[in-house]
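4.2 Preliminary Data

To establish feasibility before requesting continued support, the project team ran the inverse folding procedure on a target of 245 residues. The structure was first converted into the token representation described in Section 3, and no sequence information of any kind was made available to the design step. The complete token record follows.
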């Protein structure tokens, strides 16, 4: 019985990467055209949402999204969420219809096929480099001025399996204050159980997303960054603690 479990987990991981690749290969000409200009990003984003749905459905995940407040269509926001799974990217794409740009670690650019488009459409950061972190702010500012939103997983990485929610980095909150845009906290309640970074784990099932009321940044200044950070983290942490197991 245990052998079959491990065999399932191995095949399940392989199947995930197959699902990631299939739409990219099939839609390659369209994807290549969609990244030729930054102004065409909203079109690329629509294709990315189809890609995300394809993967989640193919993995046997049922998505349930509960939003306390819906984003306005042409407004810019700072999306944040807890980070526990390789499926977080897909679930975030499904959770928001508003085009947003991910800020993510540069290591993901090394993944075949996916990495090619990732590094051309997302804002990559090398957290060990101060120069890279400063460049992130400049690129994010440009994207916000284009009317897009930004998405950051503020834990700055994937915490240990035993950690409910790691401390948040300040970058997302500084950006939100600088541009006076609302913060939208999302909570992924089941991703760690469904498809964590632990290789021998995971199964089809329910993936719940809780979208909280926006956190206003109007009138806040950079010295309010830490307080805003803690407020946003508390919202997500309390939801994770109170989830129905």
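Position-by-position output of the design step:
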């Amino acid at each position: 019985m245990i052998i079959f479990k491990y065999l399932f987990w191995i095949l399940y991981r392989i199947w995930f990467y197959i699902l990631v690749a299939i739409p990219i290969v099939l839609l390659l000409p369209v994807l290549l055209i969609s990244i030729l200009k930054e102004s065409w990003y909203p079109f690329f984003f629509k294709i990315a949402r189809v890609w995300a749905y394809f993967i989640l459905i193919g993995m046997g995940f049922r998505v349930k999204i509960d939003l306390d407040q819906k984003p306005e269509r042409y407004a810019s926001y700072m999306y944040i969420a807890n980070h526990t799974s390789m499926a977080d990217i897909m679930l975030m794409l499904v959770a928001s219809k508003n085009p947003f740009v991910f800020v993510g670690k540069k290591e993901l650019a090394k993944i075949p096929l996916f990495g090619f488009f990732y590094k051309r459409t997302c804002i990559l950061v090398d957290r060990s480099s101060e120069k890279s972190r400063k460049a992130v702010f400049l690129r994010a500012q440009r994207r916000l001025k284009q009317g897009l939103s930004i998405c950051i997983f503020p834990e700055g990485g994937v915490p240990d399996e035993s950690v409910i929610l790691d401390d948040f980095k300040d970058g997302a909150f500084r950006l939100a204050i600088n541009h006076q845009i609302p913060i939208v906290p999302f909570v992924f309640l089941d991703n760690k159980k469904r498809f964590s970074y632990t290789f021998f784990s995971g199964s089809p099932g329910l993936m719940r997303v809780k979208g909280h009321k926006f956190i206003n940044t109007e009138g806040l200044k950079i010295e309010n960054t830490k307080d805003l950070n803690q407020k946003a983290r508390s919202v997500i942490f309390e939801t994770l603690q109170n989830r129905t197991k």
